[in-house]
Design a protein that fits this description.
The complex is a heteropentamer of chains A (350), B (344), C (240), D (254) and E (369). With 344 residues, chain B is mainly α. Chain B is built from 13 helices and five strands. Chain B has a two-stranded antiparallel ribbon. Chain B has a two-stranded antiparallel sheet with strand order 3-4. In chain B, a hairpin with a 2-residue loop joins strand 3 and strand 4. Chain C is of the alpha/beta class. The two termini of chain C are 32 Å apart. The C terminus of chain C is likely disordered. Chain E is an alpha/beta fold and 369 residues long. Chain E has a six-stranded mixed sheet, with helices on both faces. In chain E, strands 8-7-9-10 form a four-stranded parallel sheet, with helices on both faces. Chain E has a three-stranded antiparallel sheet with strand order 11-15-16. The longest helix of chain E has 20 residues. Classes of the chains: A mainly alpha (350), B mainly alpha (344), C alpha/beta (240), D alpha/beta (254), E alpha/beta (369). Chains in contact: A-B, A-D, A-E, B-C, B-D, B-E, C-D. At the C-D interface, helix 6, helix 7 and helix 8 of C face helix 1, helix 5 and helix 9 of D. The structure holds adenosine-5'-triphosphate (2 copies) and magnesium ion (MG) (2 copies). One magnesium ion binds next to helix 1 of chain C.
Chain lengths: 350, 344, 240, 254, 369
């Protein structure tokens, strides 16, 4: 049963198993373990990014396709929900229509891009997606009539999913629509993650790995590389779009900065690499660590900079405003110390 | 002397005409585009203005891209840090210019150009040194691994940009060009910024110099071979590491040069200015064909010209003109126009 | 006999966590062809790679031409006079044949006389001089790989299975070329599976098994003793 | 007369101006082992590439069991029964030996697009893969990563993969190059076994005369891309074209 | 204690503006409390939160400020996108958010809710003041703006306001935000304006770096009798104005222009403490700081409803003179300044010198909510 659920993809490391269970436990009970607005925001973000990062890993780690357009799909899903909610009005139907159409549109767009990738070299493909994604971001800001431009869109979602909907309290935590919303995000993310886990451990997943290793030979033993790559791209795009839809439902706001920016793309890339490419569990670890760092690094630095007051230059470098500097350092160090990601590291130690 | 093995005589067929034209095609693209511009624009003075300034813009883009043809094209390192070097170059160069106010503030071409040269040298020294450190600390462990290169160099980019904030402050720095480089010359109803003419001179000189170095020395060959099979290059007796460091430093220094030129053009510099140019610069290197100075040169001119023509004819399309150009060229030649190195 | 050109004593080499060479003692006499023989996977290639420096010996010492080279980096070993033809040929496939050869002449421009000699042995190289090396046929690549090592005067050539994939006619010209090299005073350490080639070319021989040299002596002795071959290399009479 | 399993008709390819394979027309019957010989660069590997689809033909057709497959992509030719082993080893270096073979069997059973089942639940694939590895005596190395195998063992795996494909047309490109004298017989015996199955055809590129002598039913000679001779081994080997262009002088009298 | 949350983009591309805004806010609180930092006997505590210029983070941080930190009033942010994402949070928590200095019209327009006040100017105010400064009988104007909401809305407001003055618009040119080469745009504008009679102006609306003014000026628009005009800018950007002496436009703030005690104090204190004159966002931040204190004083408590009642229609003194929160949309109405650039000794930038103060009543700022 459990084997089936995790598709026989064991963590293969004691520490890793512990970490994963810990994360699952914390996320499942986040509203009760860490009451407070900020921590719930963080937990929801972790859930969503786990799915987003895992879907990217399907592309990058399992299929060896480097794309910078993943946020584009994420954004498509988010804008799908936003536009549906704006035009159809508040309601579950809008959420469903938005999510489905976002996912379908993403898959179609991915199909187009996937067919394109046949012709060009992998590294050029990466650069093309980079250019296309940046152009799409600009386009979204230009089409402000439709998309709200730079400023993005605010919209309402069903009342049962907002803080205004109050149900009383449990263990001293007030049960509101926000909490329901969180569990919607949590369970949807969990299901999507398990789905992805199954896909990469299916015969299809094995073919993807073979293609990543040596596409020439994969073709020569009878696999149509094009079809496999394209399907992987479409699947990955559709899942990313659904993650985007969840994000939109959670945030009740979409804008280019929250869904389409190159920065997010880099964050995703870093999460995949920190966690460990080519393993879905890497996505869990990577996303958790990174989102936590993003949210609490500044606070930590504030403390550190206070503690080092009086020393030359150091407090200046530790100033919370310089947190990006340390993020950059994190980028570099993670590649140094976790060349195979945290998961790879943990597995090799056991 | 042993007897030779029987030589075999492979059969050769005649090349077809389109095949033969295809070879020269990249060289014809720029003239063709200019003619196309003339036909579709109509007004001669507008066409002249757009063409000359487009070519000059192409030169500036080429200067910024030249370092990347070495680092990305030849060495196969996706270096987003290049953008940071452009910014650092601009900051160092512009700081030097501000310090040389007595040279820039007077209307003497000689002094002005001397000041610019001094700024360029200062910038190139600093970015070259920075490149050396970057190679040692950041790039060395990730040769051959594109993905890690992207991450690590983006990390380096962020760190350098933040250090610019620490050292120069977060504000944009506005500046004006040296006296004689301000304003424009008018010619046949077309106004051409004087500064662009300087950029043309710099760009052409750089192009010729790079071509000579790469044609006359083995450096280009060593790097290309080294990327494919470093062990073998070392087994032939070359200190590959030294060559790689040298080329990386050169690429970084060229980014510094590009930074000064671009900063002087924009007349405002920010820590993110280089990063903003990266996509364009990558496009130029890609459509040119990896490792090809000639290709990058032609690519840059195409980008400069096309941008101007499209922005004049149909501003709405300006946004996608570069991407469309890249896509079209890659559909036509999947390896770029004149590839020296094969992309993977 | 003068001192040997190359001498390995007690060389151990690890690849990742595997202990591959387990104490190799090997002597390559000056001015002769030494065959390094053995079954698949016994460590012949690893030995050559350790000599050129692609793998670092974990212990033991390597002496070349009287000097200790154990801790020299690869380029320094090459410049000291060791030429290398790797098992996978190490062709720079994106470069043309010409560019491969230009690089092979590390200390200056290509010597036209030497080039003529190479063309005589391997005519296809002249035919495809301007073609991309990656497009050559398997045998042509092998020729290029050997030609690259011959582009400059070296004291010692390490050659890993040069005849694989070569047509018989080319094998004999290649054998001739190697003899020319020897005549010019060079020494050769040759790994070869084709026993008749080994027999025809080798002066001395060393046989490896399991990361060690298990037999060393005159090639003629080995060639004349079928039982010894059978024992060392599993060679049966019929396979000759 | 038995049916032609594979036929090429006027098969030609040009690289730029260079005609590497020049109008080769030839048919191959079931139960027959054809050795293809010729000097280096004669076009043997390129001929294979044209048949298996790695290179698109400039002219001519390839027919597999009567069906024109000239325009088919590599993968579908493979699935229709054209199996190919490569001259320069070409495997999945970071996967294990077992996984390499298993992937092939999975391909043959058309399970690639199976998204929702667990790969590990398909035991039958593993069993079949082990059986094949046993045939080439690689089974002790089943769990090793291919990248760390010695050259000779990689060549054996190359053969194992071809056998796992279970094709109608086997194409071997110098299968024993670099294989030691005690190992080569394993592969050669295997080829002999395949030949005994009678319903397949085998194409073998080989430079070693003893191998050709012991295995070939027929020899074709390629020279400068063109078909220079075709016939039974003894006649072809004795012909001038083979003696001059191919054999050169005997090694013994160098 | 009274908690004020300053939620703004401390890090990211607008870091420089953010610092100004925060300094201004603190100076404003200090000024309005007479240095005690106390109102009605309660201490003012300012907590800072960094949105990193990301709307989602801004949203979470504002919720945290209201929900976990129990802030009474929030101020910020710098970027309009972040501000728009934050608006519903104020409504959810039923607490006041004073928007400063984000400029998008829709903040006090279609996306407005009754908990939102804005001390900063909005884009219409910018555009309309420029129209008032540039317009006039017989004037023909071409516009150049970035092709996105800010640019298009700005031009629309400008056009609307200009109609009243008798001037007309001959050509509107929009270019992508990241444009670096303006030759084509300039050529199009020149071609459109070439045959036009009378006074010809090119009005440039541009946000952020890379202002095309200098580059277009270098193409010698005077050949066609075209004058360049543009709005004011932060001090650093005025360097570019040095090439354009005599250029006119309308600005939001320049420290030498407003003549009032608040500004005198600000300029003096700022010079003393930071060694430089105050800039755009310092003035804005200070206006917000004073507004907070005045509102609490007037309401007598930090109860949201009381604050809203107090603030609607409230007038208070700022470095820019008297501002007034309009009842309908809570937008602060304020003066703008018609300027002309001059070269002055000792200043390495073009100095905007006051031509005329455009008072609250000189501009008809539409209510759009
Ligand atoms: N990169 C590597 N990683 C792990 N093991 C390796 C690696 N390279 C070689 N080996 C192992 O080292 C041993 C010796 O290999 P080597 O290539 O030296 O053999 P060889 O004698 O040259 O064989 P062959 O005749 O097949 O070329 C083999 O068992 C091989 O599996
Ligand atoms: N892609 C290509 N582009 C250009 N020329 C090519 C290409 N592929 C092969 N050739 C040329 O075609 C000729 C035939 O090569 P092929 O590999 O078929 O020879 P072969 O008969 O297999 O030789 P060998 O016995 O050495 O393997 C060679 O001269 C080679 O240079
Ligand atoms: Mg070997
Ligand atoms: Mg071949």
């Amino acid at each position: 049963m459990l084997t089936n659920l995790i598709s026989d993809d064991r963590p293969r490391s004691l520490i890793l198993t512990g970490l994963l269970l810990g994360i699952l436990f914390c996320l499942a009970l986040a509203p009760f373990l860490f009451p407070g607005v900020r921590s719930l925001e963080t937990a929801a973000r972790i859930c969503i990014f786990i799915v987003l990062v895992a879907s990217y890993d399907l592309l990058l780690g399992y299929s060896g396709i480097v794309s910078f357009a993943h946020t584009m799909f994420f954004g498509l899903g988010a804008y799908g929900v936003a536009l549906a909610s704006v035009h159809m009005g508040r309601g579950y139907d809008a959420l469903i229509v938005g999510t489905v159409s976002g996912a379908v549109a993403s898959a179609l767009l991915a199909l187009l891009i996937g067919l394109f990738s046949l012709r060009v070299r992998a590294i050029f493909f990466a650069m093309i997606t980079l250019a296309v994604a940046s152009a799409v971001a600009v386009l979204v800001s230009q089409l402000s009539g439709l998309t709200g431009g730079e400023d993005g869109l605010n919209y309402s979602i069903p009342r049962e999913l907002t803080p205004a909907f109050k149900l009383g309290s449990l263990f001293g935590v007030s049960i509101t629509g926000k909490l329901l919303n969180y569990y919607l995000v949590f369970f949807a993310s969990l299901a999507l993650f398990l789905l992805l886990l199954r896909i990469v451990n299916s015969p299809f997943g094995r073919v993807l790995q073979a293609i990543r290793e040596n596409d020439f030979r994969a073709e020569a033993i009878g696999y149509r590389v094009v079809f496999y790559r394209t399907l992987a791209t479409c699947l990955s795009a559709a899942v990313a779009a659904i993650a985007g839809s969840l994000f939109a439902i959670w945030l009740r706001y979409v804008g280019p900065d929250t869904t389409l920016s190159f920065e997010i793309m880099l964050d995703i890339l870093l999460m995949v690499v920190i966690g460990g490419m080519g393993t879905m569990y890497g996505a869990v670890i990577g996303a958790t660590i990174f989102v936590l760092a993003q949210n609490y690094l500044q606070n930590l630095m504030g403390v550190a900079s206070g503690a080092t007051e009086g020393l030359p230059l150091i407090p200046q470098l530790l100033d919370p405003d310089r947190w990006l500097l340390w993020l950059g350092v994190l980028f570099i160090l993670s590649v140094y110390f976790f060349p195979t990601g945290i998961v790879g590291r943990l597995r090799s130690e056991d | 002397m042993t007897s030779a093995a029987p030589d075999h005589a492979p059969k050769y067929a005649q090349l077809s005409l389109p095949d033969r034209i295809g070879k020269a095609m990249p060289l014809l693209l720029v003239p063709l585009l200019v003619v196309f511009g003339f036909l579709s624009i109509g007004s001669t003075s507008s066409w002249l203005t757009l063409t000359v300034s487009g070519l000059a813009m192409g030169m500036m883009i080429f200067i910024m891209a030249s370092g990347l043809t070495l680092v990305f094209g030849l060495m196969d390192v996706i270096n987003f840090g290049h953008g940071a070097f452009i910014s650092v170059g601009a900051y160092v160069g512009i700081s030097a210019l501000l310090a040389l106010e007595s040279w820039t503030g007077v209307p003497s071409l000689l002094l002005n150009v001397a000041a610019v040269l001094a700024a360029v040298i200062a910038a190139m020294c600093v970015t070259g040194a920075l490149g050396w450190g970057f190679e040692r600390v950041i790039v060395r462990p990730v040769y051959g691994a594109h993905l890690k290169q992207i991450l690590v160099t983006v990390g380096g980019l962020i760190v350098i940009e933040q250090m610019i904030h620490v050292l120069w402050g977060p504000d944009e720095i506005y500046l004006t060009r040296p006296e004689t480089l301000k304003g424009a010359v008018t010619f046949a109803g077309a106004a051409i910024e004087k500064y662009r003419l300087l950029a043309v001179v710099f760009g052409l000189a750089l192009f010729v110099a790079m071509r000579l170095v790469l044609k006359r020395t083995k450096i280009g060959l060593i790097v290309r071979a080294g990327v494919q099979n470093g062990e073998m290059v070392e087994a032939l007796g070359y200190h590959l590491r030294l060559v790689f460091i040298g080329v990386f430093i050169a690429g970084s220094a060229l980014a510094g040069l590009g930074g000064v030129m671009w900063g002087l053009y924009q007349e405002v510099i920010t820590a993110g200015m280089g990063e903003e140019m990266m996509i364009l610069v990558f496009i130029v290197v890609i459509i040119g064909g990896l490792g090809s100075v000639e290709g990058a040169f032609i690519g840059a001119l195409l980008v400069g010209l096309l941008q101007n023509y499209i922005a004049f004819l149909e501003p709405k399309l300006a946004l996608i003109s570069n991407i469309a150009l890249m896509t079209a060229i890659l559909m036509w030649r999947p390896q770029g126009m004149m590839p020296v190195v094969k992309a993977k | 006999m003068s001192d040997p050109i190359l001498e390995l004593s007690g060389v151990h080499t690890d690849i990742a966590q595997y202990h591959i060479l387990q104490g190799v003692d090997l002597v390559v006499p000056r001015g002769g062809v030494t065959m390094l023989l053995g079954r698949n996977g016994v460590g012949k290639t690893t030995t050559l790679r350790t000599i050129i420096g692609h793998w670092q010996a974990k212990s033991g010492s390597l002496r070349f031409d009287g000097a200790d080279i154990t801790s020299l980096p690869t380029p320094a070993r090459a410049r000291a006079g060791i030429g290398f033809v790797p098992e996978d040929m190490g062709i720079f496939s994106d470069l043309t044949v010409e560019e491969n050869m230009i690089l092979a002449a590390a200390s200056g421009p290509l010597d036209p006389a030497r080039l003529d000699w190479i063309f005589a042995a391997f005519p296809p190289l002249r035919t495809f001089w301007r073609s991309e090396a990656g497009n050559l046929s398997g045998g042509q690549k092998q020729m290029l790989s050997i030609a690259r090592a011959m582009a400059e005067e070296r004291q010692l050539y390490l050659i890993d299975e040069p005849t694989k994939g070569l047509a018989p006619a080319i094998i004999s010209t290649m054998a001739g070329a190697l003899r020319d090299l020897k005549k010019k005073g060079a020494s050769i350490l040759l790994v070869e599976q084709n026993f008749s080639v080994a027999k025809a070319l080798g002066d001395t021989a060393a046989v490896m098994d399991d990361g060690r040299i298990v037999w060393a002596g005159q090639m003629a002795e080995l060639a004349g003793d079928a039982a010894l071959q059978e024992r060392l290399m599993g060679l049966t009479m019929e396979a000759h | 007369m038995t049916q032609m399993l594979l036929e090429t008709e006027g098969l030609t390819v040009r690289f730029g101006g260079h005609v590497a394979v020049d109008a080769v027309s030839c048919g191959f019957r079931a139960g027959e082992l054809t050795a293809i010989v010729g000097p280096n660069g004669a076009g043997k590997t390129t001929y294979f590439n044209l048949i298996s689809g790695q290179i698109a033909a400039s002219e001519g057709t390839v027919r597999l069991m009567g069906e024109d497959v000239t325009r088919d992509p590599v993968a579908s030719r493979c699935r229709k029964g054209l199996g190919r082993a490569f001259q320069l080893t070409n495997l999945f270096p970071n996967l294990t030996v077992l996984e390499n073979v298993r992937l092939v069997i999975q391909a043959r059973r058309r399970m690639g697009f199976n998204l929702l089942s667990m790969a590990t639940s398909h035991r039958e694939l593993t069993v079949a893969a082990i059986a094949i590895l046993e045939r080439v005596r690689l089974h002790p190395l089943a769990e090793q990563k291919v990248g760390g195998l010695s050259h000779g063992n990689q060549r054996k795996l190359e053969v194992a993969i071809l056998i796992a494909l279970d094709p109608v047309v086997y194409m071997f490109d110098e299968p024993t190059a670099g294989m030691s004298v005690d190992e080569a017989p394993v592969v050669l015996d295997l080829i002999a076994e395949l030949k005994a199955e009678k319903d397949r055809t085998i194409l073998l590129v080989e430079h070693k005369m003893d191998v050709i002598r012991s295995l070939a039913d027929r020899i074709i000679v390629l020279h400068n891309g063109a078909l220079a001779a075709d016939g039974d081994p003894a006649t072809v080997m004795a012909s001038d074209v083979v003696q001059e262009a191919y054999m050169g002088r005997d090694l013994a009298d160098v | 204690d009274i908690k004020i949350a300053h939620v703004y983009g401390k890090t990211g591309a607008l870091e420089a503006y953010a610092a100004q805004s925060h300094n201004g806010l603190m100076l404003g609180l200090e000024y309005a409390t007479g240095g005690t930092m106390e109102v009605n006997g309660e201490k003012l505590v300012v907590i800072e939160k960094d949105t990193q210029l990301k709307p989602d983070i801004g949203k979470a941080l504002l919720a945290e400020a209201y929900g976990d930190d129990e802030a009474d009033i929030a101020v910020g942010p710098v970027s309009s996108g972040v501000a728009l994402a934050m608006l519903p949070v104020a409504q959810e928590y039923e607490k006041i958010l004073i928007v400063e200095p984000a400029v998008a019209d829709s903040i006090t327009g279609e996306n407005w809710n009754r908990y939102i006040f804005r001390t900063g100017r909005n884009s219409s105010q910018d555009a309309i003041s420029n129209a008032v400064a540039l317009g006039g009988e017989g004037v023909t104007i071409a516009t150049l703006a970035q092709d996105y909401a800010f640019g298009r809305d700005g031009v629309a407001a400008f056009r609307e306001a200009l109609n009243a003055s008798g001037a007309k618009i001959a050509h509107e040119e929009y270019v992508p935000t990241d444009t670096t080469d303006f030759t084509a745009a300039a050529e199009r504008i020149f071609n459109a304006m070439e045959g036009v009679e009378g006074k010809k102006k090119l009005f440039i609306i541009w946000a952020g770096g890379g202002n095309p003014m200098g580059k277009i000026n270098a193409m010698d628009p005077s050949r066609f009798g075209i004058e360049i005009a543009t709005g004011g800018n932060i001090l650093a950007a005025l360097t570019a104005y040095k090439e354009l002496p005599g250029m006119e436009g309308a600005t939001y703030y320049y420290y030498e222009i407003p003549q009032n005690p608040v500004n005198d104090w600000l300029v003096k204190e700022h010079m003393d403490r930071f060694g430089s004159p105050p800039d755009f966002f310092t003035a804005g931040g200070m206006a917000a700081g004073i507004a907070v204190v005045e509102a609490i004083k007037k309401a007598g408590s930090t109860d949201t409803e009381a604050l809203i009642t107090a603030m609607e229609g409230m007038e208070w003194e700022t470095p820019k003179g008297t501002m007034r929160f309009r009842k309908e949309d809570h937008q602060a109405l304020q003066s703008m300044y018609h300027f002309r650039t001059e070269i002055q000794d000792g200043k390495d930038y073009g100095v905007p010198v006051l031509v005329r103060e455009i008072g609250i009543d000189d501009m008809d700022i539409p209510v759009r909510n």
